[in-house]
Amino acid sequence: MLRTATTLAFIAFALPAAAQSVSGTVTKIDRAQGKLTIDHGPIRNLEMDGMTMVFRAGEPAMLEGLMAGDRILFDAERVNGQITVIKLRKKG
């Protein structure tokens, strides 16, 4: 029993954290570059505090219908060395 608990604890800390949805507000969109600026809360899987920063959109379609001021929930991960929004939906 103790060996199983120890193994599970090791796996929980050894594996990278999975992306989780974070609340944010879009402050700027650069459709030509496929980027958006988001004022967001902490992103735990990236060990990042809340701040305003530029993200690459994982898919250009994510930016369709999106406007500065929109409140969103999003997931972000490092993709090829760039912090990228991999999932996005408007709140409300």
UniProtKB/TrEMBL annotation:
Residues 1-19 form the signal peptide. Keywords: Signal. This is Copper-binding protein. It comes from Camelimonas fluminis. The lineage of its organism: Bacteria, Pseudomonadati, Pseudomonadota, Alphaproteobacteria, Hyphomicrobiales.
